[in-house]
Amino acid sequence: MSTTAQNWPPVEVEPPKPHPDAPSPGTALEQHFHHCFGCGDEVESGLRLRSTVADDNVVVTTFAVTKAHQGSPGIAHGGLLSCALDEALGATAGRLLQIPVVTARLETDFRHPVPVDSTLYIVSRIDGVAGRKVYVSGEGRIDATDGQLAIEGRGLFITVGVEHFLKHGDAEQVQRLRERYASWNINF
Ligand SMILES: CCCCCCCC/C=C\CCCCCCCC(=O)SCCNC(=O)CCNC(=O)[C@H](O)C(C)(C)COP(=O)(O)OP(=O)(O)OC[C@H]1O[C@@H](n2cnc3c(N)ncnc32)[C@H](O)[C@@H]1OP(=O)(O)O
Description:
It is a single chain. The chain is of the alpha+beta class. It has a domain at 50-157: Roll (Thiol Ester Dehydrase, Chain A). It is built from three helices and eight strands; from the N terminus they run ββββαββββαα. The chain has a six-stranded antiparallel beta sheet, with helices on one face. Strands 3-4 form a two-stranded antiparallel sheet. The structure holds ligand 3VV. Residues 32, 38, 86-87, 90-91, 94-95, 100-105, 131-133, 156, 158, 160, 162, 165, 174, 177-178, 181 line the site of ligand 3VV. Its main location: membrane. It is a peripheral membrane protein.
């Protein structure tokens, strides 16, 4: 079957330059926001994804799939798998480059069902950068990073400044959060 990834990245890109202070291999990434549906521990029904930096500027994100995530009996819902991919790819871009990013485009190929009680391992990498555009891809495998391939995806993430979150989000929460990212020295 032909894949949709033939023209990826779709524009000329430069290789990513991970930030000198980016977390080193072996580092477990903190939740980027405690109320995030993807990674936050304050969200009762959240996915509670966990990400760790691996060698070669790769990030491994795990999603423990439970009955709460079913779309059909015993099988994970595709939308939630895409959500996990969104978080995994976004975390890879944001944390390795140390820039705030938002998803502009996300594409998922579902290759194999993901059963309840399995853990999806999403391995993500930055494929290139073109100005504010960061192209990231990843693949999700069942129960191990070399397990059965279940999903593949690609995302376009756009670098934004704090004004994006202030304009569109909850300014009070943003002000609290920006203190945590003050060392990123973007335009905070
Ligand atoms: C104080 C707070 C700090 C927080 C820091 C946290 C750091 C933690 C680090 C990391 C963890 C991250 C984990 C996140 C995981 C979850 C991520 C999500 O789910 S994000 C929510 C969903 N996404 C949105 O809500 C975006 C909605 N869209 C927008 O707001 C705008 O459309 C935006 C910002 C994406 C672009 O708008 P424009 O006005 O700024 O820029 P324009 O010119 O339109 O686009 C820029 C370039 O991108 C292309 N572009 C934009 N959208 C595109 C698309 N859909 N397809 C293809 N190209 C697109 C355009 O053609 C343009 O390209 P050309 O520069 O001209 O070459």
